[in-house]
């Protein structure tokens, strides 16, 4: 036992971990729930990386079409029953099907990954709202952390959509359609992003190469960027401290900041508890609310009405269908750009809630826009064609449908 | 064993254990740890049993799969997820309880 203690001490000494473990953390940030959601999002990211590693070993992307007996589809996956004996499915879909239904523990693995992704997005939204309310960007170095946070939020939603495309089910193809149409919007306003994306993908419809690129982006490129930004953010918090307490009384605020606990064992125990409780919640969601794999899609097949995109982008989809696309398609871009400049606009006064009611109102409007669109998208069927550009006169070179019957160009 | 019976046995162990651990955290941490770890051990034994059934079940899977076997496999995996969730929950509340304990001690100094 003594040699183990000696080894532990040696590790702490050689890697200078003692400084890290003993760094003081204000007690208020340990007990106030508004300070927890960044940790939840970060832990979700690492859980996603862990499950994603195993999923990446088992998943093979591909557009090759195979015939699947209709009886092989699980009843909970079928929303639009087909009377034929077989259905067409891509290699990607069959790969996810094999992981989910034909691999021991594959069902838990995929469901856990899916729910962890949803939890990461939800935690990122709440974290954004909490930091907006707390005015975290007002402290020294807070603006840079806020900037990183907005970029991380944007990447998180992108990562979710990329992952949602990979099984190539009807909903995934709809997500791809929405994503590519977003690039078309840039083309329309004169920024040739759509053209650039087509040049990068080498095609304007999903091919083996396109799916492979989406796969690589999902498992390598975006997670690597997230990891770097997350590392910078953790470093900034470690040395710059957490957000100041949201109280007006300066004396009380100082007292709260000075009331500190060492990271180890205090915050460490709390974080261990958080990790296990988070895993527990995710596994409970897997056990009680398993998500369907959904129906397969085959090239050339039109996405039927009633298919919905994943909930993180549902609000956007709803507005695109409700409001004139010229305004609605740009909503998330405007929201992200505005969020990026918030620290430059909100500079005066303290960080207490009573001093910042206008900015808290703006934070509530942000959440209301996302919440209203999401709820509305799920409870009503908005009768409009799926493409958001039905009312926009698209330039002729952008008018080629991105998804449809394959007809190679170039 | 039937997956629903397994789920009930899991709940029968996990719910009283979680309540007991929660009660003991407020009174005596030693008892909380003892109860917590014993119940985690029991839940992991149940998980090992369920995992055995799952691996045995999946040796019978062929292509095209029999939907009934797949549905049964899904049921057992959901139960296995529940068992791990319960064990994880107990470890989680023990860790949070430990934080509350050391934070409280420091406050009394």
TrEMBL record, chain A:
Residues 7-246 form the Cytochrome b/b6 N-terminal region profile domain. GO terms for cellular component: membrane. SUPFAM superfamilies: a domain/subunit of cytochrome bc1 complex (Ubiquinol-cytochrome c reductase), Transmembrane di-heme cytochromes. GO terms for biological process: respiratory electron transport chain. The keyword Transmembrane helix applies. The chain crosses the membrane at residues 34-59, 112-133, 145-166, 173-201, 213-232, 268-289, 326-345, 357-380. Keywords: Membrane, Transmembrane, Transmembrane helix. It comes from the Archaea. One of its GO terms (molecular function) is electron transfer activity. PANTHER family: CYTOCHROME B. This is Cytochrome b subunit of the bc complex. It comes from Pyrobaculum oguniense (strain DSM 13380 / JCM 10595 / TE7). The gene is poxF.
TrEMBL record, chain B:
The chain crosses the membrane at residues 6-25, 37-60, 80-100. The keyword Transmembrane applies. Keywords: Membrane, Transmembrane, Transmembrane helix. It comes from the Archaea. This is Uncharacterized protein. The lineage of its organism: Archaea, Thermoproteota, Thermoprotei, Thermoproteales, Thermoproteaceae.
């Amino acid at each position: 036992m003594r040699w183990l203690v000696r080894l532990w001490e040696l590790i702490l000494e050689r890697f200078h971990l003692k400084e890290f473990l003993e760094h003081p953390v204000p007690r208020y940030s340990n007990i106030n729930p508004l300070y927890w959601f960044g940790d939840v999002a970060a832990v979700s990211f690492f859980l996603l990386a862990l499950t994603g590693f195993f999923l990446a070993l088992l998943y093979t992307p591909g557009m090759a079409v195979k015939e699947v007996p209709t009886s092989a589809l699980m009843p909970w996956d079928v929303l639009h029953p087909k009377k034929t004996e077989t259905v067409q499915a891509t290699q990607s879909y069959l790969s996810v099907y094999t992981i989910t239904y034909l691999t021991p523990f594959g069902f838990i693995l995929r469901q856990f990954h899916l729910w962890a992704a949803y939890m990461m997005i939800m935690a990122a939204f709440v974290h954004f709202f909490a930091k907006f309310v707390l005015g975290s960007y007002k402290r020294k170095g807070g603006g840079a952390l806020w900037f990183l946070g907005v970029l991380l939020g944007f990447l998180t939603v992108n990562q979710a959509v990329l992952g949602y495309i990979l099984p190539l089910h009807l909903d995934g193809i709809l997500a791809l359609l929405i994503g590519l149409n977003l690039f078309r919007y840039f083309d329309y306003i004169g920024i040739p992003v759509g053209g650039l994306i087509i040049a990068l993908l080498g095609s304007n419809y999903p091919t083996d190469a396109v799916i492979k690129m989406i796969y690589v982006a999902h498992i390598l490129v975006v997670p690597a960027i997230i990891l770097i930004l997350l590392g910078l953010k953790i470093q900034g918090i470690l040395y710059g401290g957490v957000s100041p307490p949201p109280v007006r009384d300066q004396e009380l605020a100082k007292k709260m900041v000075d009331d500190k606990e060492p990271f180890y064992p205090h915050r460490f125990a709390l974080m261990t508890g958080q990790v296990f409780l988070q895993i527990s919640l995710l596994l409970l969601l897997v056990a009680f609310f398993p998500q369907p794999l959904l129906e397969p899609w085959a090239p050339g097949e039109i996405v039927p009405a009633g298919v919905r995109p994943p909930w993180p982008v549902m609000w956007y989809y709803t507005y695109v269908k409700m409001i004139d696309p010229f305004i609605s398609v740009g909503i998330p871009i405007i929201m992200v750009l505005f969020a990026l400049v918030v620290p430059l606009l909100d500079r005066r006064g303290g960080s207490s809630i009573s001093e910042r009611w206008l900015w808290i109102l703006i934070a509530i409007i942000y959440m209301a826009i996302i919440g209203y669109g999401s709820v509305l998208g799920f409870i009503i069927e908005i009768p409009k064609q799926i493409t958001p550009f039905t009312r926009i006169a698209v330039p002729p070179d952008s008018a080629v449908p991105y998804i449809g019957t394959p007809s190679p160009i170039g | 064993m039937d997956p629903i019976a397994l789920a009930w046995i899991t709940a029968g162990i996990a719910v009283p254990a979680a309540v007991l651990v929660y009660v003991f955290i407020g009174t005596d941490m030693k008892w909380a740890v003892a109860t917590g770890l014993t119940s985690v051990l029991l839940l992991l034994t149940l998980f090992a049993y369920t995992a055995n059934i799952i691996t045995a079940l999946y040796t019978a899977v062929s292509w095209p799969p029999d939907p009934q076997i797949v549905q049964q496999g899904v049921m057992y995996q959901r139960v296995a997820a529940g068992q791990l969730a319960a064990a994880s929950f107990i470890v989680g509340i023990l860790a949070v309880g430990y934080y509350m304990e050391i934070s409280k001690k420091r406050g009394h100094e």
